[in-house]
Amino acid sequence: MIKVRLSLSALFNRRQTLGRHGGRCHFFSKMTEVSKDEQIAKVLKRPNEENEDSAEKEHPEDEKKFPKKKVVLLMAYSGKGYYGMQRNTGTSQFRTIEDDLVTALIKSGCIPENHGDDMKKMSFQRCARTDKGVSAAGQVVSLKLRLIEDIMEKINEHLPSQIRVLGLKRVTQGFNSKNNCDGRTYSYMLPTVAFSPKDYDIGNIAAFRLEPKTLQRVNRLFALYKGTHNFHNFTSQKAPSDPSARRYITEMSCGEPFIHNNTEFATITVRGQSFMLHQIRKMIGLVIAVIKGYAAEEVMERSWGQAKVDVPKAPGLGLVLERVHFDRYNKRFGGDGLHERLEWDREEEAIKAFKEAHIYPTIVETECQEGSMVSWMSTLPIHDFEGTATETRDNKDQKKVSADAGNDSD
């Protein structure tokens, strides 16, 4: 016991002596302590932290040769067979456009493989979350990429033919394709028999031709949507008092009919700041119901009020995201000499070619084979356009949609 106390006393005296001899020995003592702390931290380091470090150093040569830069990709795709644009991580049975895009980005070497399951690491964002079966000719996504050589060709090599990257531009570091987008233009291609009277024999849709006076009435009704309205009845789970239900529409009209595969079609164009889930399809569905004689015109004004109105939802097949607009961004950064304007004039021919090869034929062939519009028209008598039911047919179908889905684009 005496020996132990003597040893402790000697150690105490020795440390005091070192302290009196100034900072040099004290410095080396601290260095030893720091070194030990680092060694202990290394031993106790969690496995996932080791993985994070190694992930950053996975391809050091690639990082030096091809540093990550913020870009936008112009995309076109046919939505048939896909469950919309947005990826559902961990739900592989519902394939989306983003599933195939992310896979192609990894295989081409544009993003690290370990970032594929969490694209937030690449600052990924899309302009519009298109719904199941909806196509796009001008979708834009923003993200950080390694700018490898022949980047677009290499990405497209790993994409199916119904999805294509048609353009790429550098943008500012803080750019977000959804937040910076100040307008979206959609088109909706449909057989004109949708505007036939409700007693018309739809057994021969190829024989129907839209009369000019009916087209004029269609466009007069579509024009009513222009301006700002409360569209809470045109989506699901959205209260009339919710400010986000108010949307601004700048344009909506139906073009001249044209013949395709012996059937007459027409294309509706709508532009607005943003659209809620199913909003465009319901806007079109309600006008069709009025034209066919199932609902009175006054239902449109009533649908913007506080009461719940049963608004039918047209099929998704003919809906196409045509282009997205970045007017404010272009005004601020487009002329600074460092950044390009987010306009796609040079890609216009490629966009047109893709639509003619993949989007229009899919819409026409699917409509003629499956008759989605005709089948949907047969459900219009089920809707109660006079009453203000507390829970409509569409709302029941949308119970599983999350509360925030109503804020997303069609």
Automatic annotation (TrEMBL):
Compositionally biased residues, Basic and acidic residues: 387-402
Spans annotated as Disordered: 44-65, 387-410
Catalytic activity: a uridine in mRNA = a pseudouridine in mRNA; a uridine in tRNA = a pseudouridine in tRNA; uridine(38/39/40) in tRNA = pseudouridine(38/39/40) in tRNA
GO molecular function term, any single one: RNA binding
Entry keyword Cell membrane: no
Any single GO CC term annotated in Swiss-Prot or TrEMBL for this entry: nucleus
Annotated positions binding substrate: Y186
Gene Ontology biological process terms, A to Z: mRNA processing; mRNA pseudouridine synthesis; tRNA pseudouridine synthesis
Enzyme class: isomerase
EC number of this enzyme: 5.4.99.12
Entry annotated with the keyword tRNA processing: yes
Active-site feature positions: D131 (nucleophile)
Localization of this protein: Nucleus
Keywords: Isomerase, mRNA processing, Nucleus, tRNA processing
Pseudouridine synthase I TruA alpha/beta domain residues: 223-327
One Pfam family linked to the record: PseudoU_synth_1
Domain of life from the UniProt record: Eukaryota
The protein's role, per its UniProt record: Pseudouridylate synthase that catalyzes pseudouridylation of tRNAs and mRNAs. Acts on positions 27/28 in the anticodon stem and also positions 34 and 36 in the anticodon of an intron containing tRNA. Also catalyzes pseudouridylation of mRNAs: mediates pseudouridylation of mRNAs with the consensus sequence 5'-UGUAG-3'. Acts as a regulator of pre-mRNA splicing by mediating pseudouridylation of pre-mRNAs at locations associated with alternatively spliced regions. Pseudouridylation of pre-mRNAs near splice sites directly regulates mRNA splicing and mRNA 3'-end processing.
Family listed: Belongs to the tRNA pseudouridine synthase TruA family.
Subunit structure: Monomer. Forms a complex with RARG and the SRA1 RNA in the nucleus.
Stated name of the protein: Pseudouridylate synthase 1 homolog
